[in-house]
Amino acid sequence: MFENQLKNEAFVAGESEKEPGAVTWQSPSNIAIVKYWGKHGNQLPNNPSVSFTLSAAHSVTRLEWIPKTGKGLRLRFRFEGREEPAFQAKIEKFLEQNIDILPFTEQFDLQIDSHNSFPHSSGIASSASSMSALVMCLLDMEQQIKKIPSPPDALRQKASWLSRLASGSAARSVYAVASLWGRTPSHSKSDDAWAVGLDDVHPVFKSYRDSILIIHAGTKAVSSRAGHALMEGNPFADVRYTQAHQHTTRLLKALQQGDIESFIQIAEAEALQLHALMMTSNPSFILLKPGTLAAIEKVREFRNSTAIPLSFTLDAGPNLHLLYPQDHESIVSEFIRRELLMYCEEGRWISDAVGNGPSRMP
Ligand code: PMV
Description:
The protein has 10 helices and 14 strands. The chain has helices at 2-8, 85-97, 127-146, 152-166, 203-206, 224-230, 237-257, 260-279, 290-306, 329-340; strands at residues 21-34, 39-40, 44-45, 49-67, 74-79, 82-83, 108-116, 178-181, 195-197, 209-213, 311-314, 320-324, 349-353, 359-361. It is globular. The model has no long low-confidence stretch (mean pLDDT 96). The site of (3R)-3-hydroxy-3-methyl-5-(phosphonooxy)pentanoic acid (PMV) has 14 residues, from loops.
């Protein structure tokens, strides 16, 4: 098992290797087209999911380390320049739970500084970008101290595996363009424990746009952790998991072939199904806002009347992600300004696109 392999390979710095250092990584958020909703065991998904890696919505995280003596973790975390005890506790818990794999983190004082490119209260989930950026920093730290680089593929797999434990969907943020997380017979390398990057994506999707309409910027009424848990009693759970498998198989093919029509069908069915699952949970909850539905209607009208392949998806919240080929960027931007900004809180939207995954900063 991969976990045992990582435990066997776990690195502890020798006395002469205990030197101070620092590294900075930028890592993006991602938007799921086939959604992960429902999990079991230690952050394992109940169905496969497929996402686009984003670009503009990202976190930048700097990790500094100074040798220390004695056992136990010692870290300080700052978000946007300020101490954040809740985030710090989350990171400490993650490191403590994985100390068998990252034992060297106890040998140093750690200082972590993280920033998001998007406003904290924009309703954009930041755990995928922030946790994957942190994991990239930790693995880079390990390599710097060890002075023996790991092969890049093995490193990304380990990064995805560790990111998954920090925040499920973060597993998908470590690859360029698009990722698949969760076992499916349609991809021989797929796995529940880590995501794989999709190499064979048609050029039209490699430059796809995602314009994110901020319909409501507040924090979610129900956390995604609680939402995942409610899938256990959901009467539609089995049907949902079967459909997610079918959608994954069809989407992988559509992404390869550049089949935009199938992409639209799957993306919108998945978005609405995710929210239907929330509405049919017990207790039920609704994260959509009236503005979300009004904007969806406008998007469909626009598509029907112009034949421009504009589609939408939703995350676990009311904000609408508009997905479309780059060629239509100026006409869609004009449409957003003219007909959709009225549904956005303070007229806010984020212009994003499919991106290249995490990168190390100078
Ligand atoms: O990674 P989590 O536990 O926050 O769950 C994410 C769930 C969705 O964002 C709704 C869907 C997904 O696959 O990203």
